[in-house]
Specification:
alpha/beta; Aspartate Aminotransferase, domain 1; 2 domains; five-stranded mixed β-sheet; 12 helices; globular; binds pyridoxal-5'-phosphate
Length: 360
């Protein structure tokens, strides 16, 4: 196997010391040692997200928790606010869970969602839940989640279900202040931890709703998560090695300082965006460009697959082609997790080399 440095929007590079934590011995997940460890980890996560009610850890991909959020929080009808592939995934999940749903799309891929439209849709009174992405990884759009939160405050009975997969640990998400009922993320993106687990906050309001909802399925029942959480446990055998790594990663995040971490992401994004505008063009709408990835519009009509191959073969660097229908029309530079500005600069200078541009 050939290993490369990852500049893809997840999974992100995991530093060696974090990986080494996964080599710790196994412990029983029903024992006192585990409970002490797990309580420590969830306390760190609660503090990090300012989640006053619950933060759970699921052994699943983030998509599993998206499904869980729908199963526990949608009774009547869900409004799936989408601006790309992951928003469409929420809609597919909602339908697959047998719930009624409507999709509210942004004008097109590359454009952000407009909160006024969300407000208008919610004013009809048809919905008991809304789903959204903080950061739409297929297009590189970062929605104005503060503005969303303001609108949601007008509708306290509507569940606010948030996919923060490629945003959490890169931007400040204060779930309590923002009134998010479920906010979820896989740790393989901006946390820069090994994949396999997802973290999610659940508000007391969402927990109350979960008690009333029928057909919740089995694996993601929030009430069961709470029952075990109160004992310092998870409902089923967790990915213990990944938990060790995440716990260690949380200590590093606090050491770096969350604000410094967010600032580092802004710096990498600003640099990548300026580079993209100079060499190509950016794809995502101005004012809504992601801090965790830059989607470059392929205005030079290069063969993106060839560029990707060049970087892999010559420098062991991995870049992402466009997502789905945006393949070859765009490419994506992931700059999240533990990457540094210097590492991003290095990648971009290699792309310049491929383009025959002298970097300055
Ligand atoms: C990566 C990603 C997902 C899917 O995450 P999995 O852990 O693979 O399920 C969902 N939403 C967004 C915004 C993502 O970036």
């Amino acid at each position: 196997m050939k290993f490369r440095k990852l500049f893809i929007p997840g999974p992100t590079e995991v530093r060696e010391d974090v990986l080494e934590r996964m080599a710790w011995p196994m412990i029983g997940h029903r024992g006192a040692d585990f409970a002490e460890f797990f309580r420590g980890l969830t306390e760190k996560l609660k503090r990090f997200l300012n989640a006053k009610d619950y933060v759970f850890v699921s052994t699943s991909a983030s998509t599993g928790v998206m499904e869980g959020a729908i199963l526990n929080c949608v009774e009547k009808r869900c409004l799936n606010v989408t601006c790309g592939a992951f928003g469409e995934r929420w809609h597919q999940i909602t339908k697959a869970c047998g719930r009624e749903a409507d999709i509210l799309q942004s004008e097109e891929w590359g454009k952000a969602n407009r909160v006024e439209e969300v407000d208008k849709a919610l004013a009809t009174g048809k919905y008991d839940a809304v789903t959204m992405q903080v950061n739409e990884t297929s297009t590189g759009i970062m929605n104005d989640y503060y503005a969303f939160a303001e609108v949601m405050k007008k509708y306290p009975d509507v569940m606010f279900l948030v996919d923060a997969v490629s945003a959490m640990a890169a931007v400040d998400i204060n779930v309590d202040e923002l009134g998010m009922d479920v906010c979820l993320a896989g740790v393989q993106k901006a946390f820069a931890a090994p994949p396999g687990i997802a973290v999610f906050s659940v508000s007391e309001k969402a927990m109350e709703k979960s008690k009333r909802v029928a057909r919740k399925g089995y694996y993601f029942d929030f009430e069961v998560f709470k029952k075990y959480f109160d004992k310092g446990q998870t409902p089923t055998t967790p990915a213990i090695s990944q938990l060790y790594a995440l716990d260690y990663k949380m200590d590093q995040i606090f050491e770096e300082g969350p604000e410094n971490r967010y600032q580092r992401h802004v710096q990498m994004a600003e640099y990548a965006r300026a580079w993209a505008k100079d060499r190509f063009d950016t794809f995502a709408e101005e004012g809504y460009q992601s801090v965790t990835l830059t989607t470059v519009r392929n205005s030079r009509a290069i063969a993106v697959a060839d560029l990707v191959k060049f970087l892999e073969e010559k420098y062991s660097l991995e870049l992402a082609n466009g997502y789905g229908k945006l393949k070859e029309k765009t490419f994506r530079i992931g700059h999240m997790g533990d990457l540094t500005l210097d590492e991003v600069k290095d990648l971009l200078s290699r792309i310049d080399e491929y383009l025959g541009i002298k970097s300055g």
